[in-house]
Amino acid sequence: MSEPNRKSQESLQDRLEQVVLLLDRHQNRDPAEPGQQSRHLEELQRKLEELHPADIAYILESLPHDERLAVWQLVKSERDGEILLEVSDAVRETLIADMDNHEIIAAANTLDADELADLAPDLPRDVVRELMDTLDAQQRERLKSALSYDEDQVGAMMDFDMVTIRDDVTLEVVTRYLRRFEALPDHTDKLFVVDNEGLLKGVLPIKKLLVSSADELVADVMSDDPVFFSPLDAAGDAAQAFERYDLVSAPVVDSHGKLFGRLTIDEMVDYIREESEAEVLNAAGLREEEDIFASVWKSVRNRWAWLAINLCTALIASRVIGLFEASIEQLVALAALMPIVAGIGGNSGNQTITMIVRGIATGQVQAAHGRRLIRKETTVASINGLFWGVVLAGVAFLLYENAALSVVLLAAMLLNMLLASVMGVVIPLARLRLGGDPALGSSVLITAITDSGGFFIFLGLATIFLL
């Protein structure tokens, strides 16, 4: 099997296991075989040279701190910049901390301005200032421009490496012009047509260039109504447009229509992945992405805030139960059944809140949709509550042979699911209206409400109608 084919057959996990094995052999020195250590080291370095920067990034993220730094030291310095771009923010911090200023600047100098803009926020300020001095005037201005935008704006993600042409030349001239390049920029599926002042006039898809007559003018075959963006546009809106129109690249123009840069599909994929990961973390109440091998203290600091909130809500739920101690003492079955009411309500609420947060993320849900969504979700909850309430009531009757208890259980199930559906809509929309992240701590809050609410509703109804 040829080398390219062999590499394609290996999974990321296989490559990780190979690196771990070689690293372990290198670090576990055997005095009886001094030559073995250098052979393992050479084999490990050769393996790292074969890997794509993204694969090395995955391996670094999957190693504990000491092993990670050991592998990082074996990576060739000219690849440092690419790898730093690929690793997660949390792991990038540990790698940069292991580098001196000279190494950081050397790594950064291998990157383009748009890539530097991704890396710069994680670099020490004195390094950024020194790095600015090493750039030529064009790169420096491009970097300053990219850094002037918020990280969730198109301007912070755009690429300055693109091919521009005029509309008054033939396709044959364009083809000869392209042959002068050693390689086209990545993700070049179209050429950008501009006038003498740099104003965007249209785009020429590469596929049209290939199939059209060489004598035709660019103006006759180009698309004069391309999808384009402003540097101030939200990255989320751009990501949706890329998905909607199946874009690979798109021009970015300023307020005067002058071509400023371009967006590419790789940036959009990275953005969507990062947003998805952030949404999952926020739902669990984690403030930021966490290196799985981070120090204990750093992990504690990242998790403590919402754990404190969760503790407070748990205390409230316990006090709700405490209000009905006498009722539970008289009818012990209540203690066995009340977690079911709370648990089903929490699950229902999490289903609702997940759908609403997703709708907000895709732009389909706005704060103004609140009433309509509440009506819809309460109807769904009513149907589910009645159906599963009847099922649970039947099970309770078989267990305890108490018809009144079964009816109370059905009513509590229905009411708690209605509460969960309303709060599943209200919590994310309220956070959206207040300018917060709709996903932040959503699962924690909905669980707290359905637990306390479920206990109060079930035990309250039982106290009124059974005792």
Automatic annotation (TrEMBL):
Compartment(s) where it occurs, according to its Swiss-Prot or TrEMBL record: Cell membrane; Membrane
Topology of the protein relative to the lipid bilayer: Multi-pass membrane protein
Keyword Ribosomal protein listed: no
Transmembrane annotation, as ranges: 380-400, 406-432, 444-466
Keywords (A to Z) from UniProt: CBS domain, Cell membrane, Magnesium, Membrane, Metal-binding, Transmembrane, Transmembrane helix, Transport
SUPFAM superfamilies in UniProt: CBS-domain pair, MgtE membrane domain-like, MgtE N-terminal domain-like
A GO molecular-function annotation: magnesium ion transmembrane transporter activity
Domain CBS, chain residue ranges per copy: 158-221, 222-279
Entry superkingdom: Bacteria
Alphabetical list of SMART domains matching this protein: CBS, MgtE_N
Principal cellular location given in the protein's record: membrane
GO cellular component, as recorded: plasma membrane
Record bears the keyword Magnesium: yes
Family affiliation: Belongs to the SLC41A transporter family.
Annotated function: Acts as a magnesium transporter.
NCBIfam families found in the cross-reference section: mgtE
Quaternary context: Homodimer.
Protein's name in the database: Magnesium transporter MgtE
Taxonomic placement: Bacteria, Pseudomonadati, Pseudomonadota, Gammaproteobacteria, Pseudomonadales
